[in-house]
C-alpha cells in the first residue's frame, strides 16, 4: 500500500506544482428520506480556483434509491463573477460490484446553449482506497471543452449518517490548460 501512495504522490505532486489553475471543490450532499425509496436531495458545491473565477452551485431536487444505485433529478443555480446561470441536472451512481463504482452526471444548460457532463469510475484497491478516472466535458456551440484524467479517492470518516471523503484528480484538457483538483465531500442522509 505504501508503494501505491508513493507512486501517486510522485505522479500528482509535480503536476500540482506546475499547473496553471489548481482547484478545490467543497461539496455538501444532503438527502432527506420521504419513503423507503424516494428522497429530497440537495448538492451545494463551492469551486475554489486559483486563476479563473470562483463559483458556487446549489442543486435542489428529488431522488430515487435502490440497494446498489441511486438517481437524482435537480435544478442547478450557479453564482459566479463571470455570470449567473441555470441548468437541469441528472445524476446516477451505481456500485457495479464490491470493488467498482460508476457515477454519471448530465446537465442541459438553460442560460446558454450546451450540456455539461461528468463521468467517473472508481476501482477499490485497498480497504476503501480507490483509483480510477474521470471525464468532465461541456458540449457547446464552437469547440467543446473535453478532458479526462486519473483520480484517487479515500473515505476519511463515517459518523452516523455523516460521511467525509477526499478525492484528487489531474484532468488533462484537450484545448486548454490541465487542471489538478481536490474534492472534499461531506454526505449527510436524514432518515425517516
What's the helix and strand layout?
Elements: H1 2-18, E1 23-33, E2 38-49, E3 55-65, E4 69-80, E5 85-95, E6 100-108, E7 115-126, E8 129-139, E9 147-159, E10 162-173, E11 179-190
Description:
With 192 residues, the chain is mainly beta. The chain has one helix at 2-18, and strands at residues 23-33, 38-49, 55-65, 69-80, 85-95, 100-108, 115-126, 129-139, 147-159, 162-173, 179-190. The chain has one domain (2-190): Porin, CATH 2.40.160. 9% of the residues lie in helices and 66% in strands.
The best one-word shape is globular
**Biggest β-sheet description:** 11 strands, mixed, barrel
Q: Which spans have pLDDT < 50 for at least 5 consecutive residues? A: 1-8
Distance between the termini: 39 Å
At the first level of CATH, the class is Mainly Beta
Question: What Rg do the Cα atoms give?
Answer: 17 Å
In a few lines, what is going on in this structure?
With 192 residues, this protein is mainly β. It has one helix at 2-18, and strands at residues 23-33, 38-49, 55-65, 69-80, 85-95, 100-108, 115-126, 129-139, 147-159, 162-173, 179-190.
List keywords for this structure.
single chain, 192 residues, mainly beta, Porin, 11-stranded mixed barrel, 11 strands
